Every structure is written in structure tokens, then in C-alpha cells.
Amino acid sequence: MKDIEYNEAGQFCSGHNACAGCAEALSMRVILNAVGKNTVGVVVPSCVAIIVGAHPRSSAKIPFIHGLLESAAAMASGVKRGLVSQGKDDTTVLCLAGDGGTYDIGLQALSSAAERNEDILYVCFDNEGYMNTGGQTSSSTPLAASTGSSPLGKTTRKKNLVEILAAHRIPYIATASPSHLSDLSEKVTKAKAIRGMKVIIVVIPCLPGWGIADDAAVKVSRLAVESGVFPLIEVEDGLRYSINSADKTKPIDEYLDLQKRYRHISDSERVELQQDVDDSWDRLVARTKM
Predict the structure, then answer these.
(1) Which residue, of 56, 165, 254, 270, is most buried by count of CB atoms within 10 Å of its CB?
(2) Collapsing DSSP states into helix, strand and coil, what is residue 233?
(3) 246, pLDDT greater than 80
């Protein structure tokens, strides 16, 4: 991706209910400014629903419909088809959900929308747990991370949603980070111009859920990218993989050490986590060469 200058368009208001220092609010500001005014939003129970807020006190300048946790993609599909029936083909439908409503409870609706290639832009704010209801484990929670329902550490690996979506052969999948705002803005702009199903997964370190300092969300996000834990990538038509971030330049130690959810792990577990990241990076690089 080319590095473009981010421009503030006033699509996201101050006075929202996000935690102080929350990177999700920062990411929402960039996304809403990139999609523009001719957009209808869909949101389901999650931190983002609280941040957006309810009419007439919404923090967003676009209209939002609030729905059920399991039906985000289905609702967005219906909204888009309703707009098309009114001749409003050019209106973007933006769906915002968390990892609980994407990786888990909403996966059936998301898979169905992907199979139909619905013309929606689906954004998942991935904070790797059910952070809005106590920080319980989701299938997005990484191996060994401690949560409210796995205090000794999760015993299974994080679900690879990118590969699941790629198997549907949808036009566009991307990952993004609040540490790379120009990359996030350009990916939203690119996705908006594509017809069909588009999914962007944004890593969002949860301050209380991950146990990080109030001013550390962007730093932790950047370390996730630089260590290869959360590489910035694009997948087009389910086949063409590209890496948008620099090569994996750092070990995972600094990334882990900033988070309380990893303070219980042993040296052998740390080595295992590093090996998992290295293996995943190697597989990703191999895919970009295919």
C-alpha cells in the first residue's frame, strides 16, 4: 500500500463512551472519515456499540442501526438490498462488530454473506476476547493468553479468520492496525470502491482486558505488527496475498511483556509462542510468492 496522508473529515464526534486511551475510538474515527457521508452503519452489541451510542446522541455523523450479536452480516446484507431497491446503489453499508460477534457468534451470518458475496464492508475490531462483558475467552484469543474465563491461559490457538474468509473467495480481505493509520485509511478507501464482500480486521489492544497502560494501545499495536503477531496483509479474491508491513523485525518478548495477560507464562511457553509466530510468518510469505 502507498503511504497516504490521513485527512480529518469530522465524521466522528468527541464525547463518546470509550475508555480513555482506547484505540478502537481512534480506529473508528479513521474508518468513518474514510467511508464518507454516503454511508449507513450497522452495529451489534460490543464496545463499538457503546462508543457509537444511540440516536440522538450518537458519536457518528452517519446513521446506525443496532441489532443482535449473531446477525451483523445478515442485517448489513438486508440494509444494502433495501438501499439498492430504492436506487441507492452507491451508498456504502458499513458493518462494525467485535471478535465475539465475528469469529464466534456471528460467524454463520458472516460466512453466509461471504458465500453470497454481499456488497457490504464488514469491519471486525479484534480485541481477542469478549471484553465488553468481562474479558472472557473468544476463539480469537491467542494461545496462552489469560482471560476472565481462562485465568491460567487459553489452551488452544487463535482461529485464523483470514484463511476461513479466503476460502470463500470474496473480493477483498485485509488486516489493519491503529498504529498504521494511513494504511487503515487507504484499505477502507480501497474496499469501499470494490463491489462485493469486503472484510477488514483491525487489531485493538483492550486496556483492561490485555492489562496494558492507558497510553500504550498504539505502542502495543505497533509491536504486534513489528513482531509478526499481527501482520498487515491483503488477500484479493481469496488467492492473492500481499504483506503491507515491513518484514518481521522484532521478537515477541517486548510485545508480551507489556501485557498482564501473559505474565504467567513460562520460558518454554514463550519459546512455543515465538515458534508459532515464526511458522505463521513463513507460511504467509510463502503464500505471497504463489
Answers:
(1) 165
(2) strand
(3) no
C-alpha–C-alpha distance, residues 233 and 68, integer Å: 29
For 23-288, CATH number out of 2.40.50.140, 3.40.50.970, 3.90.1170.30, 3.20.20.450 equals 3.40.50.970
Bond from prior residue into 56 cis (ω within 30 degrees of 0): yes
Distance CA(177)–CA(203), nearest Å, equals 5
pLDDT in tens, 55-94: 778 899 999 999 999 999 999 999 999 999 999 999 999 9
Burial class (CB in 10 A: 0-12, 13-18, 19+), 27: buried
pLDDT of residue 112: 98
Q: pTM for the whole thing?
A: 0.95
Q: Which among 233, 242, 249, 228 is positioned nearest to 289, based on CA atoms?
A: 242
